[in-house]
Design goal:
Length: about 300
Amino acid sequence: MGLEILSGDAYSEASRPPMERIREALSDLPAYDLARLPEKWERAGSAVTIKLGPSLFQYGERIGKAYAEALGAGSVLADVSGVSGEFRLPDMRLLYGEGGESVKTENGIRYSYDVTKVMFASGNLEERRRMERLDCAGETVVDMFCGIGYFTLPIARFAGARCVLACEKNPDSYRFLLENIKLNGVEGTVIPMLGDNRAIPGAHFADRILMGYVQTTSEFLPKARELAKPGCIIHYHDTFPVGVQDERVRRIFSEVFGEDGYEVLGIREVKSFAPSVSHYVADVRVRRSARFRPSRRS
């Protein structure tokens, strides 16, 4: 049959599990530290981020190089303490390579960003996918917390929106937003705005409003009411203790829109946020009976 028997390695070097190669490269580390090497990582184009325990930072450059070589990454950064502050700024330390700026492709969308300057919430993947599946044909959409375009870009490119007003307050995020608008060819659909979303001009023109923020989102709901037209759908993100999200959402919207001024279409868990606390998104439709005149909270 023309066959022959060959002998050789059962698998190539490249096919070995990354952690096996990483541990081998760092095998001279104390057993205590070797056992604490992170087995999970996140990719952002050519950049990889990992979480290190305090005892491992003394080997930072060696660890970074080992992960870079095993994962084919251009740079490796350590996530020191997550994100914090109004702008949700990351706390990153470069271990190996030249920096954290790269392009990440997800669901056909290209996101350019720098992991040392802006966050990218990988746990929001399903919500970004959901945004691109929405039917926004002919709609005017307002993204009040657009960041680098997390939700703006899927809606502008795939959901059929007529225009998306994308507002961002962080200058670093805004710079990447402008770049991402061009990368994804949506210049004719997205209108970028740098500044506080409470300064967005106009009233009662939005068919859909995205409120992709958490913890203090309710402070911006009066502005959303001002922008919304009757029938507008608001995608309201916030964090609540597990099990009380329905009651909390209704309380917040009743205070701003009146008890009969809105309809909750559904509430979804986006991801776990803290022990017994989750990040939720509520889809809420504004009724014609909503309070459209400014309230004391505006």
